[in-house]
Amino acid sequence: MRRTALVVGATGIGGRHVAQELLNNDWTVYGLARHPQIDIGGLRPVQADLLDPQDLAEALVDVTPTHVFITTWMRCDTEAENIRVNSAMVRNLLDALAPKQSVRHVALVTGLKHYLGPFESYASGGMLPETPLRESQPRLPIENFYYAQEDEVFRAAERDRFTWTIHRPHTIIGMAVGNAMNLGATLAVYASICKETGRPFQFPGSQAQWEGLSDVTDARILAKQLVWAADTDAARNEAFNIVNGDVFRWRWLWREIADWFGVKAAGFAGTIMPLEQILANDRELWRDIAQRHQLVEPDLDRLASPWHTDLDLGRPIEVSANMARSRKLGFCGYQATDDSFFDLFAALRHVRLIP
């Protein structure tokens, strides 16, 4: 039976790589987004608003997926609003597909805020988890939109009798524009500004992050785990961490990134120096850089998400994720983290997003 995938959030940092991996494995793939301008050959675009049930039903009238990959979310001002909006998006989607009775499996991508808490209380002193983070750790006693998304999947799975998997990446490194959480592109923009201005490439985060062990998730590895889980019976109805498979310290990787861009690295400064403040007045500077180098995106806010980079690099503890659960079941994907960053930087330069 031919497999048909619906990738929700196909323009995002995770979704576009999931779509490409599925196409590489001979799936029929639909890519849903509000503005599905996707340069992926073979992908069938679907334009829809997940918060508009009627629009969603009309957009999906001819789409009967066997597998659904949910890789999108919407950032709101408060966690209560995050819960309301993001749970509604998942619920509306699965309700729209329910009458078709075609869905056999749903994969939901969330992240390590499952363990570290929502934005409003992220990695705060009273809720610091034991690391490495393991899937068996219980939910935190606090509201979290990831939990609300999961619960919508669980309810629909019981109603419609499909299987599910939850995938929890660390910081995702990959190509995307306009993404709300994009540390790799943010550091590329920051390093490019440092090179243009002669500023030092100053590490903006905490001592714990500078000195402690960390890991990240290449979007390509995330995609491979999603496709593996969709094809592996033993993976059904399980949650999985997903990271590259190596660990690093920022005090090493920061110098490697600085060398790639040809800028002077400056380490932990004795206090957190938020990147959001460092880049606050650089929007016009970036427009000038874009004009001089004929870049295709002059809007700094479309490329960089310093608020999210500050969350990751400012945490008071070292953070890494244990991969034993999927390793035991046969997932052997691995990606060297320095290559994750360097491949992204080269791709950004190739498409003229950075000089």
From TrEMBL:
Organism: Massilia horti
The protein's name: SDR family oxidoreductase
Domain of life: Bacteria
Pfam family, one: PRISE
InterPro entries reported in the protein's UniProt record: NAD(P)-bd_dom_sf (IPR036291), PRISE-like_Rossmann-fold (IPR055222)
Domain PRISE-like Rossmann-fold, residue spans: 61-296
